[in-house]
Every structure is written in structure tokens, then in C-alpha cells.
Amino acid sequence: MRLKRLLFLCTALLSFTTSFADDFVQNSIKYTTSSDKTVTLVDGKSTSGDVVIPSSVRYGKNDYAVTVIEHNAFQGNNSITSVIIPSSVNSIGYSAFNACKNLRSVTDASSNANMQGYEYTDCTNLQSVTLSGSLQTIGYRSFANTGLTSLVLPANVKEIGGQAFQDCQHLTQVQFDSRLEVIKDHAFKQTGLITLELPSGVNEIGEWSFEGCQNLKKVVLPLRATALGTGSFFHCTSLESVVIPGNITTFNDNTFNGCSRLSAVYYLGDNQPSVNQYTFAGVDNKFNFYVKPSALANIRGVAYISDKVKDSFPYQQRSKYATFSSEFAVDFASVNGLKAYIAKGVGENNSVNLLPITTAGAGTGLVIEATPNVVYQLRLADNDTHYDDNALHVATSEIANNATIQHKADLTYLSNPVDLTTDKVRYEPNSTVTFTTKYAFPDGAKVRYLHGNKVVATADISGKTSWTWKVPADNFTGYLAEVYTTVGTTDNVYATIGIDVSTEWGRFPRYGFVSHYDASKTLDKVKGEVAMLNRYHMTGIQFYDWQWQHHILFPQDSTHWKDIGLRNVYKSSIENYINQLHGVGSKCMFYDLIYGVTGNMNGNTPETPDNLDKDGVSSDWGWIDLHEKKGGGYDLHQYQYPLGSWPSIYVMNPGNQNWVNYLAGSINKVYQNFGFDGYHIDQLGHQRDAYYVNLKSKKVNGKKVYTDGDRRNTNDFEGYFANFINRMKADNHNKYLVMNAASSFGGPNIVGTKNVEFGYNEMWGGDDYYWNYRKIIQDNRRNNGKNTFNTVFAAYLHCRNGRPGELRLSSALMGEATIFALGGSRIELSGDHMLFTEYFPDDTRPMSSKLQKSIIHYYDFLTAYENYLRDNNAETTVSMTMDGKQVAAWDLSNPDPSLNEHPEMQTIGPKPYMVNTYSTKKGDVTTIQLLNYSNVSRDNFNIRDLSETMPLPNVLNNKKIVLDDSQPVARIWVASPDRLGGAPQELDFTQSSGKVTFTLPSLEYWTMVVVEHGQKSVDNSSRIKNYVLSGESFSLAQQNSLVAGDVYLSFPASLVSATTNVMPLKMVTEGIKSLTNVCGNSSDDYYTLSGIKLQKPSKGVYIHDGKTIVVK
């Protein structure tokens, strides 16, 4: 009996666990249901051509998310040529695409964090791979023996697995990110790499990791690296030199064995490393192991190579003057007949002032004067000395193709953007802004105030924690305050903040909310929240659920009450918010339904009669409709909106004048007792099709029962909304109005009154598509009659999807980027939390610190560039390519009316898996919003991202852009909330035959490109002019002529004549203004003005502790 029962239970459990495992095939792909909501892709071997894996599939009556690609799913399929993997996929099995011989391109937008291994092994024609921004680990042999030629690793990759890229013989270039930490055994064995500069975060380099890379010539290892695995560079037969950090103290067996051209190892350590017998076997006969002179005594006796240890290395050049830089510090003091110079500025006749120095840190650009073809002996220096005002620079991969970019370095990450504040959310023309910073900025800090890329004023703020600026007289204008220091030709950007000069709060609305009013909201706590709302530049604040009841908004003469959600509300808390918000210039808008009467409670249980007469309100004024009875049939009674354990909302007819008059009286009492600036009017959207008027009723058991009436269509409500708005404005013409168009219901009528400050659209399921946001913005402007009329969206991130934890960074920022780029705004922020449901007090899902910092930058951007984003800008379309590939232009077509019931099937708007442009034109300025949807599927083209599958973007750096533009272009500049705190950066460009060519510095989520048309300005004072050494002078560098590693001369164009193309050399003996020692030299050190360190100074002028002093 027990055995039979056990067998029955096992059978039942097996039946339960497999009840979801149904197999089905769609578009030649086989799926297996893995739950009632998800499927696994198990077989794609019958597919061919370009394969786009869907994020969801329909089977039976259910929609299933595709979350897993099973191991071996496409293995050996030689018919597929490209694959796109959607963000819904969170797991890709091993060997999923193994040996797909004709697969050429992969776009992985999945949320998969860890590759299991063998995914693309032996895909010999695979040349292009875009990896997921979520990826953290590349698996064992994931890309081994593929045709890859170059690769950009996503920012989150921390580990590259064993043999991951082994035998990728055409792989010549890999762009590593600084967060990479581990490279496992054989990872890049027998690849085509030419140079290797590993990022600073790498601390583990596995065994045989770069074995047999026969094209590899140069290796620079990160300072954090502590070990080189056995055979790391075995048989790299082209390798000529290696710089090895001092943290590596053990050289394992065969590390450089067979590197037949390796002639120089520069070792930066101070103590003798452990060297194996075969570590350097088979290297060049001229091999030497170079160390610092101070370390020679300790290292000279190192095993197996003791006769190769030297404290100086050879150097020669072919001409009298040559440029020079090194990956390590170099000492020139003991070299006779050779002089090293830094460039100190512009002298007479536009000459280059060269100042002799005796030591230079790693990466310092120099000019060397020496006798041609003479071999000199240089030494590694103990001290890594850098000269802050040296005009010679070393080109990196970032600027190699951007020779004349006005260079800015992003140091905004060093501080929290909330630490820099203004005293108001917006300003009157000619008024004064007061800036406050928590910490003083570095010496030499300045602030420039910009409108677009035009500097309107500057000021020195060194040592200041507060300063002021009187804004210009121009109304409705955005500015950016940019705090920076200048080091040579680089501006280090420390902080930014937006400034809005507008006399009307609704012209460029930034709309926040408050939603808690209990006794904990002390004055100090309210001040803190308002300070945060001020930092977001919120011009208006919605007071959500502050009221006692919908029809009687507060109990007269009471100091506290219960709100409609039975929470405690204190009048003093509301007044504290109003007073503090008015202090920073925000408008305070109270919230209430246009047609709500709050029901009664019986203890803790809501009463739910069919019809409610209460407080002088008659149900005859209500929204009466037919309702299905429990026992069958219909009866006529009031529409009731239940709220669970809270009192129900009894909905009124907004066209009933008795109701409108009643509510108008309640509204007037609010204005008489509170300092609110206006009324935020809410509605519930299109809930039902009918309502009844001219009602007939009778009493049954003491209750009102409706027996008849005239049926009307609820589309009438849209007109009633407009009438109500006009009535509210007539009653209180000095008060402001905003009304919600829930799912666009009544939207045209609402904005058509011209009595609302801006459009306000609450977006629900069928509304939440990227294309629809742009449509609503444009519709609202057209229906209002002004192209300056703007829109705020209520689009609740992850709304009620049941998941806990922090809000998803990529979802929030991609949604922000899309709405702002399209010219919209969004209600989402209070002083202490971010919205994620329509019930604003819900604060259970926090923002991460990174999200909050990013959000501040986005709102600074929205404020500073309001004239480029949403100020009478007419839509246009541009054509451009990025690195030779077409960039998609936003499809501005109207939606297909035949798909009104299936908005998800519309194909207008942006294109998936591509960078997209949305462009506008105003006067001579074309503004191009670049949105990085390069790894975003169409299923992710929604703002709320209920599935939380929006991938992290793959950051695109230094991309060549070719823009079709036949008009003469005067200037191009870019700005992004993801970079430099939104500070603008002017770009150099060329224009020929209707093509404008420039290099885009960066695109993460969103970058704005501004093209100003007209004659190219001869005033290039804000530009940088770059020169390269030619003979005994510097000549103007041609665009795109610099190669990474080149030393070039760089000056602000304002220092040299506009016609200066050649700058002769001039040697000087003074001129150092600042000198920085990064290796710990004490402040007791003294230097001559030519950079020579002295033990004890005599009379004269010296540099000491960073200052110029006179010793008498």
C-alpha cells in the first residue's frame, strides 16, 4: 500500500513538473515551454539567412517570453548568415552557434551575463560581433577559431575565459575596458594582435594567454598586474619590447621563450624578481633587461640573465630634432650631447618656446635635440615627473582621429552632482543666480556660462563655495554652468548645472510630485526633499492624495485628517511643502479627480451601495450606467471604482452642472485656505461606453433604484472636460490648470482649451510605444495651436510588475533619453523617491546611487538645452552613416489605422538594433538626436519596460560620421547627459560635395549633435590647433593624420595667428609655471626653472612645493 501510494505521488509530481513542457515550431524554430510564461529555444537548425530571434512567441492563447537558447540549438547550421538575440534572453547555452560556418554577424542584445563556452567556436566566417552590455564573463572557447578582425568589449566584462579567442588569426585589435580584471589561460593564443595595452584593472594574466601571437610587436602591462602566467608570450616572434610593472616579482617558465626579436624588457620594480631558466630562452641576441639605476644593485644578480641587466638603454634618432614619449619615466640628466624639451607656449613670431628638462614621467610628450645617428644611453627615472603646462601631447586612440577637437576631460565622476546647486528652479530675466557647492573646486577653477556652445560669461571661482551670476535679459532661454580647470590644452570638467530663465513655469515644464504628509514630515525633512526637487529644477509640483475626500478636499478647521488611502495627513506638512517650494520658485498644484465622490467606511470595511447620496451630493448627478447583476440581467446604477480596503470612488457625470457647481465650491475653499497655485485635474480614462441622463428612480426598501433614463455615449465626456477646465479658469483666472489625458482620452479637447499649462498624458499598455510618445507631443502642439506647447508624460517605470529591488538603470535612462530627445518631459521624481506605479506614495523600489546621479545630469541637460529640445523646433529628417553603416532616421509617418487594435505591430518610429536619429530644424540650426538602440529589439521600444529586459547600451566611441548636408556648415558641436555632465564639445569637420565628415566622440544612451549653418567662422579662438614636428619647426597637422602614440604640439588657437601653419623652434631657459610629482616627492624638494632637482638651493628663483619662490 505504501509503495503504491509512493508511486502515485511520484507520477503526480512528474506530471506536474512536465505539464508546461510542450514543444512547438514557429518560423522553423522549435521551442519548449519552460513555464506558463516562458519558453526555451531548443532547435534552430532548420533556419536560414538572417535570423532574428523573437523576444516572445504566441502558442495557443498565450504569449511566452523567449528567455533561454538551449545548448547546441543552432550548432552546425551552415545556412544562417546573421543572428540577432533579443534582450528577453537571459541564458545562452554552450555551443549554441558552434560551427555555423557561414555565420558572419551577431548582434547580442541579451541580458545574459555569463557565456558558458563554445557559443561561436569554429564560426570561421564570423567577422562582426556586437556583444551584450550585460555581459560580465566571456566563456571557454566562446569565439575560438572565428574570423573576427576587431572587437569592442562591453564595459561590464570582468573576465575573459580560457581559449576564448584562440586561433582568431585575423583578430588584430581589441578595445579593452578598464573594468577587465582577469584574462584566463590561452585566451588570445595565436591571434593576430599587433599591439597590446591592457587596461589598468587587469591583475591576472593566465598561462599561455598570448602564445604564438606572431604579429605582436609591443606590450605594455598594467601597473596592477601581479603575475604573468607560464608561457604568457611564448613564441611571439615579432615582439620587440615589453614594459613590466614592479608588482610582478615572479617570471614564470617560458613566459617569453621563443620571442626571437625581443631585445628590450623595461622592468619598473625595485627588487630582484624570480626568473626561470626558460623565461627568456630564445630571445634576440641583443636582449637586455633594463632597470632603474637605483635598483641595479638589487637586481644585477638575477638568475639566468644577470649579464643582461643594464641601468641604461640605447636611444638614437635620424634627425637633429625628434619627438619622444615613453611608457615609463626617463632620466636625461646624465646624457651628454642630448637635450630634452617640453613646450612652454608661443614666443615671438609664433615660435614654439622649448624649455629643457632633465626627467620626464610616463606619457610625457617631448622634443629631443641630438646628433643624428649617434647612440645615447638613457636611464629609467625613479620619479614620475609631469609638467602640467606642457603643450606637447601624446595621441591616444580616442583623439588620434580628432586632431582639432576642443579637448575636454570628464572629471564629473569625482563628485556628486547634487553637491552643486542653484537657489531656484528657474529665473526671471536679469535676475541673479546664487550657486553653492559643498566642496570648493581646485585651484584655478573657473566657471563658464553657455547657451548651447556659446560662452556668454566666465568667472574665476578658485576656493569659493558660493558665487553669483546675473543672467541675461533673454526670456525662455536655457544655460549651462560648466566648472572647469585648464591644464595645457585640456579642460578638466568638474561639474555642471542647468539654468532656466523663463517667466512662465509651464513653458518648459519639469514636473515633480510630493505624496507623504504625515507627522514625520518635519520642516527640516521637507527642506531636504525640496532641496532635491530644486536640484532637479522642478518648475511645478503635484500634491498627490493630500485630500480628505474627493468631493470635500479637507475638513474645515481641522489640523489633520485621513486621506482617501486612510493615511494620516497633517495640514502643517502641506503648508511646509508649499512654503519651501515657493521659496525655490516651484508652483504647487493640488491633485483631485474631476468626478469623484469618496464613499463611506463601516469600521475597516468600505460600504458599497449601488448609489450614493452624501454631503449634499446626489447620485442623480452621477455616472449612471447599466451593470450586470450577479443573478443575471442588468440594472441601472452609479459607476463605482472599488479600491479594495479603501473607500470606493463613486464617479460623477462631469457634464452635470449641479456636480460641477458643487465641486467648484470645494475648489474655491481650497484656494481660500491653502497657498496652492493651481489644480491638477485627474480622470480615469475611457472606462465605459455609456452613461444615462434624465433619470427616473424609485425607492425600494428605502434605497434609490433607477428604473429608466436616456442613454448617451461617454465620448461626450471629452467635451465636458473642456467645459470644466474653462469653468475653473473663469472662477480663478490667476490660478494654473493641468489635466490628465489618461490614454489620450479627451486629449485634443483638453489642450484645445488653451487654459492648461502643458499637455499631461498618462501612458498605459496600448499607449506605451516609442512612436506614440512622439505622436502625442506633436498632436498636443497641433491641437493647442502653438509649436512651443510642451508635454509631460506619466509613464510608470516597471509599473506593478511584482518585482522587488532597485529600479533598472538601463530602463530608466533609455526611457529618459527617448522622451527628452523627442521634446517631452516626464513626471517621475519626488524629493525622496522615483515613481513606479500610478499610486505615487509607493516608494518600495529605490533608485541606485548611479541612477540618481545620472538622473540629475539628464535634468540638467533638459534644462540647459531646452531651446534645442522643445522650443518651436520643426521636425526634419537627415541622412548619415556611422563607420560606413547607415544610421536609421525616425519614421515620422502616421500610424497605420488598420492596426489600431494592435499598436505593437506598428513599424513607424525608430528601427530596432540600430542607432537612430530624431532631428529638428530651427533657423540655421539642425539638431540631431542620436539614440543608441543598436542592441534594442522592437519589443523593448516601450518606456515602462514591464519585463525589465532593456539591455545596457554598448558604448560607441570615436565613430566616423558622414552627414548629407548641402548647406554650408559653420560649426558642429555635441553634448550628452552621459558625458562631461552634458557640457558641449565642439568638433572639427570637413565638408565636400554635400558630405560633412566628423568624428563622434561618444554615444552611450543619447548624444545630441548640433549643426550650425552659415559661413565657417574665421574666429577659431575656442578651437585647438595641433602641429607635428617637421625638421626644425612644427607644421599644422592635417585632420585625421595623427596615429595613437604620436607626439604633437597643441595650442589654443587664440595664442597663434589664424594664418600660422609653421611654428619654428625657440629654446628658452625659464617658464615652468607648475610641476607635479606623482611618485611621492616631498614638498621639501627644490627645482630650477629648467626642471633640475637640487638638494639645497642657493640664491635664486626656484620651484618649491608647487610655487615659484625667491631664495635670498
Q: What keyword list fits this structure?
A:
Immunoglobulin-like, mainly beta, 1112 residues, 82 strands
Describe the model.
Among the domains are: 321-395 and 1061-1111, no CATH class; 411-501, Immunoglobulins (Immunoglobulin-like), CATH 2.60.40.10. Helices cover 12% and strands 34% of the residues. Helix 3 (523-535) packs parallel to helix 4 and helix 9 runs parallel beside helix 10 (849-864). The radius of gyration is 35 Å and the shape is globular.
Instruction: Sketch the major β-sheet.
Output: 9 strands, mixed
Decide which structural class fits the backbone. Answer: mainly beta
Count of DSSP strands: 82
Helix amount: 10-25%
Over all CA atoms, what is the radius of gyration?
A: 35 Å
Shape: globular
Number of helices: 11
Averaging pLDDT over every residue, what do you get? 91
Task: Please indicate the percent range of residues in DSSP E strands (runs of 2 or more).
Answer: 25-35%
How far apart are the termini?
109 Å
Would you identify the regions where 5 or more consecutive residues have pLDDT less than 50?
Answer: 1-19, 400-404, 1071-1082, 1088-1095
Enumerate the strands of the largest sheet in spatial order, edge to edge or round the barrel.
26-31-28-29-77-75-74-76-34
Short overview:
This protein is mainly beta. It contains eleven helices and 82 strands. Strands 26-31-28-29-77-75-74-76-34 form a nine-stranded mixed sheet, with no helix packed on it.
